[in-house]
Amino acid sequence: FHVKSENKKTIWDTEEVPEGSEFDDTWDPREQPEYEILFKQQVGTEDVFFGMSRKDVSTACCEDMVIKIKLPETKFSDIALDIQDKVLDLRTPQKKLLLHLPCPVDSKKGKARFLSEEELLEVTLRMTREFDFINFA
C-alpha cells in the first residue's frame, strides 16, 4: 500500500477533486431555478440539401451548448454568472444554480442574453471536445 500524499491524513489528492467543487455550498438556502440544456449546430444549404459535410443530427455534430435558465422576478443587474471549462455557476438574490456541464466548453467564447419579457437567461457556450477536428476541420 503506497500513500501518494505527503500528509498521511489526507484522503484524496487535489487532482482527484472534480472541477467546480469549490463552488459547492450545500448550506445555501436559495432554490435552484428551472433550466434546460440544448445543443445547437451551424448548418448551411450544403449540409441540409446536398449532404456534402459529415454532419448528422446527433449532439456529436453540434458546436454550441445553449442553457436556458428561468429566472422569474429577476433583474439583469442581479445576475452573477461565472463560467469555467466544465462548470456554470449562476447566482441571483433568490436563485442559485451550480451546473456541471455535460462536456467541456471554451469559457472565453460564451455569450449570454437576458430576455426580460420571458424572464429567461440564455447562455450559449462553444463546446471544446477532443475530436472536434474530425467534424469541424
Automatic annotation (TrEMBL):
Pfam families: PIH1_CS. GO terms for cellular component: cytoplasm. GO terms for biological process: axonemal dynein complex assembly; flagellated sperm motility. GO terms for molecular function: dynein intermediate chain binding; protein-folding chaperone binding. InterPro entries: DNAAF6 (IPR026697), PIH1D1/2/3_CS-like (IPR041442). This is PIHD3 protein. Belongs to the PIH1 family. Residues 32-126 form the PIH1D1/2/3 CS-like domain. PANTHER family: DYNEIN AXONEMAL ASSEMBLY FACTOR 6, TWISTER. It comes from Alectura lathami.
